[in-house]
Amino acid sequence: MASPLEGIKVIDMTEVQSGPSCTQMLAWFGAEVIKIERPGGGDPTRHELLDMPGLDGLYYLQLNSNKRSMGLNVKTAQGKEILTKLLKDADVFVENLHPGAAAELGFSWDEVHKINPRIVYGSITGFDENSPYANVKCYEPIAQCAGGAASTTGWWTGEHALPTQSGAALGDSNTGMHLLIGLLAALLQRDKTGQGQWVRQSMQASVLNLCRVKLRDQQILEHTGRLTNYPQYPNDRFGDSVPRSGNIEGGGVLGWCYKCKGWETDSNAYVYIVIQNEPKSFALFCQGIGKPEWVTDPKFNTAEARDKVKEEIYAEIEKFTIDKDKKDVVATLSKYGVPCGPVLSMKEIENDASLRQNGTIVEVPQIERGSYLTVGMPMKFSDFTPQIKGAPLLGQDTDPILKSLGYSDEEIVQLRDAQVVA
């Protein structure tokens, strides 16, 4: 099988999660990805949240497989010269340094475009360049707060009714995937024009892109003064912005998370169930939970009526689920075409045989460690399956990369002694 990006060379000057998630996917697609790392330390995630002292951390390993590592001090004149040589025949350059850092080093878009007019240049920033926060250093939870996710996530009443970030990396890996889409599109355009371009992706914009339905809800609220599918309707007052909404489905149908057998000791003994609005689907749902009388009861048999008695409906459904195993609930309701699914813990996901079989969870061999688990290629191709390899040790590929640029063994020793490379 030919890899989709075979023959594409990527210079990766990214750290932590947002940038590395993007460049790792490029590597999985078959590109040669050269990760530029600071001598002496490298990517900070090598040393964070360690489970095996003295070895690279899982945080680093899960975001940098299939890459090559070059220890290079790009603040030195010789380091800049080496990076310039690498860029001259590269196809993609990616950076997620703090605002203005690439320009300070002499590798802004304008400078790199002069070095290689065909190169596609990718940048990740916290905020877009015209934002009042353009120079603010951004982390995952900051992006979720600024992109609309936190203000609309969490519980709407009680002591914990505060803006809440998602456990999913909406600011980091999500931004990396957004940039990936832009880079691939720019490569296709380059084939037509012969010119590379600068693809900029802010963390705020990528979070907001996943919150577009909340922008929909904001406009509905402004036009009608209420959001009928939210828990606040019909008994509570709405303010002037989209509120936090707990576990609602969010798409105009009733959806909620219900306790199942064992919930007292298992914090994930829950199932999510959606009630579809179509009369036929609703009738099948009623059969599934043993409430056939709801089909003809005007209190329940229309979507508008159900919105007004949501809490009662939720309570009745939980009477059905609470003494059953979550997977049995799914098996039962699925026979009636009811959209539903179990809440799976990370331990359950880690040990799910089907996820191992289809390559969503992959065991990867790793130098010194033996192996580790990671999330594999999320999309599946009919004629391509990536071979996911281990992540490189710091500077593991420095010497062969320098030799490919024409440096002799003696020159490499001199560069190392001068702490230009590692």
Query: C-alpha Rg, in Å?
Result: 26 Å
Secondary structure category: alpha/beta
Main sheet: strands, sense, barrel: 6 strands, parallel
Q: Topology as H/E string?
A: EHEHEHEHHEHHEHHEEHHHHEHHEEHH
Give the strand line-up of the largest sheet. Answer: 3-2-1-4-5-6
User: What is the overall silhouette?
Assistant: elongated
Overall average pLDDT: 96
Strand proportion, as a percent range, falls in 5-15%
Helix content: 25-40%
Low-pLDDT parts are: none
Number of separate helices: 17
By DSSP, the count of extended strands is 11
Alpha-carbon distance between the termini?
A: 35 Å
Protein described:
The chain has 17 helices and 11 strands. The protein is α/β, with parallel strands linked by helices and 422 residues long. A 6-stranded parallel sheet has the order 3-2-1-4-5-6, with helices on both faces. It has a 3-stranded antiparallel sheet with strand order 7-8-9. A two-stranded antiparallel sheet has the order 10-11. Strand 1 (9-13), helix 1 (18-28) and strand 2 (32-37) form a beta-alpha-beta unit.
